[in-house]
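Recall that a protein's primary structure is simply its ordered list of amino acids. Everything else, from secondary elements to tertiary packing, is in principle encoded there. The following example makes that idea concrete.
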Amino acid sequence: MSEIPELLRRGADASVGKTMSQRVADDVADRLVSMDATELGSRALTNMIETMYENGWQPMDLVHVVRRQHTVAVANLAAAVLLHQADLTDADARAPQDWVDQMSTICEQFPKVAARVEATPDFLTAYLTSSGKSDYIAASDQWLDVLTLLGQWQTLPRWPQLGPKPSQWPRTRPTVTGVAGSDSPNTKMLSKIRGLLAKADATDFEEEAETLTAKAQELMTRYSIDTMLLTQGHIDIHGRRVHVDGPHAPAKAQLLHVVGTANRVKAIWDPEFAVATLVGAPVDVEQTELLFTSLLVQATRALGHSPQAKKRKKAGSAAFGKAFLYAYAVRIGDRLTDADAHALEEVAVESADLLPVLAAQTVAVEAEFDRLFPTAKPMRGPRLDAEGWDSGQAAADDAHIG
């Protein structure tokens, strides 16, 4: 039994990174099959998750890095053990709401996995048995998945802590007064905005999309300003990570950056893990992500319909697509900044309190960003395809932002 932890460590080291050795990983997996190792394997996985959480990682971060680099089987195992660990620690009752929302997202993205998770110390036995595969080769492959997951997670660096870590959670999550409930004004407004943007994304009629998006933008601007004035600038600044999928993830991150800038949110991009972090007032961060998602749908659709993109050969289409999305982001940023300035100017006429409150919030956002990322530096942009750039700017001029 004492040999198992060392085998798990050696197998994890051999599965990912500079020390990767398929021969060693296969040998370790074969030996684990012949041993009673599942309970210690379960404990190794949950201990690894707890270490990652203490190092600044959150549930969807851990899913994202695995899904980008490994097989569906490894991603499924990651989702399962994250849900298992949440059950063991009663996260649903103790964790911050954003954390609970991430666990719900994992359940939505991995419904079959969620149905198989059991809150038992020997999680792996129950999980591996439920797969329906019991022959020696299948069992060895399953242990390779376990070793790959341990190896991937153990290579992750320490990240900035966004909110309290699990060791700081109370026994029961405190009730937040004035925010709860599906009938609250905040919830109703956000639901209305989401509904308008969803309809704008789904319609094939340009005029209808423009009307819907304009209404959504109007509601977003008013909602943000009203929240600022009601709180008189006493808003907790927080961070949220956005996981960006390929292709052209850096260009998509640039779009997120310009949307954030127009909405008083700072963004920083981690190219190694394809993760952006937003820092701002909660309402502005929420709306930045909503608008980014909508504009990304429009940009992707415009790229797919571009006659120039269809003419390009496969080798040149990637360069065209990257340039298209970068140009789209830059032009959208100009339009959003102009729209935001116009809206703020109108409200400033109505309320003399707006500008001081806005200035105080800007200072608070800058301070929190500098605390989280004291060594952040601007990145140089890539060389881009000229035709793709021109097409992207033209598409951005046609995009519906209100």
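Confidence is low (pLDDT under 50) at residues 178-183. The chain has 18 helices and three strands.
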